Amino acid sequence: MLLRWVRRAALALAVLLVLAIAFLVVQARRHPPLDDYQALTLPPAPAGAAVTVRFAGVATLLFDDGETAWMTDGFFSRPGMRQTFFGRIGPDAAAIDSALKRLGITRLAAVVPVHSHYDHAMDSPTVALRTGAVLIGSNSTMQIGFGAGLPPAQLREVQPGDTVRLGKFSVSFIASRHSPTPWSDGVSVENIMAPVVPPTRAPAWREGQVWSIVVEHASGGRWLIEGSAGFIPGALAGRRVDTVFLGVGTLGRKDDAYRSAYWHETVQLTGAKRVVPIHWDDFWLPLDQPLQAMPLLFDDFGTTMADLSQRAKQDGVELRLPPLFTPFAP
Ligand SMILES: [Zn+2]
């Protein structure tokens, strides 16, 4: 009698386990639709725009004024989900070259990771080696540069509060926080303590300092790049910008209080009149196909956009999406 009961319980548990795994596998492949947001996509930059920006997925943004070009992140390899979670990853030279070609880049002044996780900083040293760019970032980012064999002349460490001039651009580094995730509480900072030599496991690219990056151009434009959906209360008070490139990864899984605070700290405090969500695409898919939103297992882009639309409407802020690879006026 007891034996039969134990067997039944074991069978039921096994069935539940299989169902749970099946659910996770399905949710890891289900992408919320993007069709509803087509109309929000920014048009190509008009001729004569003082500054153009190109978006290349996640938080990679290429700024160009015709004299000086520089970019955040430069993450193009986008290794698949299975390899990222269970294998070793490293820069994919062919994917990087193809993306740089598509972006029309031959020379870059700088490549600036928003923090040191692999989906931002893994390819940055390779981009620097290909383009002559200086890798600018935290000490953790420098460790990624060392591991890739980047020469000292192409490494520049910055501290919170520093401003770097790149031609007519000035780029200011303000300490911020990562979005809290199952892998990171968003408050404690995990630094990289030794050179990262790829290929290696994804967690080797530890977070390092997370930045809010304020960009100003001599022509008058001012922009904020918030790579991760985190914030330090009050850190951006007194900074005025026109547009926020707003990292929204995991925002669809946060509660209303968190989303409200994030909007307040990044959009209301800076007086921005336009918000352009970034870091919403499934970065386990390659860049040679149209972007898809992050799978439902990890985020919910529909919820994020519904929430942002409502806040934007309330505050008279324009909510737009960046086109992939096409230059637009920021
Ligand atoms: Zn991150």
C-alpha termini separation:
72 Å
Shape: globular
Radius of gyration: 21 Å
Number of helices: 8
Mean pLDDT: 96
Features of the shown structure:
330 residues; alpha/beta; Metallo-beta-lactamase, Chain A; 2 domains; seven-stranded mixed sheet; 13 strands; binds zinc ion
Could you explain how this protein is built, in words?
The protein is α/β, with parallel strands linked by helices. The protein has 2 domains: 1-30; 36-319, Ribonuclease Z/Hydroxyacylglutathione hydrolase-like (Metallo-beta-lactamase, Chain A), CATH 3.60.15.10. The protein is 28% helix and 18% strand. The chain is built from 8 helices and 13 strands. It has helices at 2-27, 81-86, 93-102, 118-121, 124-131, 139-147, 256-268, 301-315; strands at residues 52-55, 61-64, 69-72, 110-112, 134-137, 155-157, 163-166, 169-176, 210-217, 222-226, 243-247, 274-278, 318-319. It has a 7-stranded mixed sheet, with helices on one face. It has a 6-stranded mixed sheet with strand order 1-2-3-4-5-6, covered by helices on one side. Strand 5 (134-137), helix 6 and strand 6 form a beta-alpha-beta unit. Helix 7 (256-268) packs across helix 8 (301-315). The radius of gyration is 21 Å and the shape is globular. The mean pLDDT is 96. Zinc ion is lined by residues 115, 117, 178, 228.
List the helices and strands and how they pair.
Elements: H1 2-27, E1 52-55, E2 61-64, E3 69-72, H2 81-86, H3 93-102, E4 110-112, H4 118-121, H5 124-131, E5 134-137, H6 139-147, E6 155-157, E7 163-166, E8 169-176, E9 210-217, E10 222-226, E11 243-247, H7 256-268, E12 274-278, H8 301-315, E13 318-319
Parallel strand pairs: 3-4, 4-5, 5-6, 10-11, 11-12, 12-13
Antiparallel strand pairs: 1-2, 2-3, 7-8, 8-9, 9-10
Helix pairs in contact: 7-8
Zinc ion is lined by residues 115, 117, 178, 228.
